[in-house]
Amino acid sequence: MKVGQTADMELSYYAGKTYTGKITYIYPNVDPISHTVKARIEFANPNFDLKPQMFANVQLKINYGKQIVVPQEAIMDSGDKQYVFVVHDGGVFEPRVIQMGAKLEGNVVVLSGLNTGETIVTSGNFLIDSESRLKSAMAGMQH
Q1: For the chain, which residues make up each domain, given as ranges?
Q2: N or C end of the chain, less CB within 10 A?
């Protein structure tokens, strides 16, 4: 977020009504317990609908430009690495390590490891992962 950025706010008290405001100040300190940063966002309040201590949902719109985005369930997370299965001709699946970026509404920005236009497995990838681990274990047992 940055000063001057617009924000949309909705309150459960006024269903369906959206207020648009601007970030006017970002506090310089990080809360050591919640690991959050406070910001001041100013909203017009001509009818005095907004009162102190009201709870609100605020959304910031960020332009990420053109990026590769995949569904979150397409990513296999092994703890230290995240990867997807790239589909090749002949039904061959290649596990490909990726670097994840921001998570956006059930999707994830891929910073590296995947090229535009590549087809990936988006559901059932855990079955492919299980089968490949089983084949690897069986191959290790054959001496």
Answers
A1: 6-60, 68-141
A2: C
Task: Yes or no: say if 21 and 41 are a contact pair by the CB < 8 Å rule.
Answer: yes
Which amino acid would we find at residue 143?
H
Which residues is 22 bridged to in the sheet?
6, 42
Q: Which of 112, 116, 103, 106 is nearest to 83 (CA)?
A: 112
Percentage of the chain surpassing pLDDT 90? 51
Beta strand extents in the chain (DSSP E only): 6-10, 18-30, 37-43, 57-60, 68-71, 76-77, 82-88, 92-104, 107-112
**Among residues 57, 61, 46, 136, which one has the least CA distance to residue 95?**
136
CA distance 121 to 130: 14
Tell if the pTM clears 0.85, that is, is over it. Answer: no
Render pLDDT for 69-118 as a digit per residue (tens, 0 to 9). Answer: 999 988 988 888 998 888 889 878 888 999 999 888 889 999 999 999 99
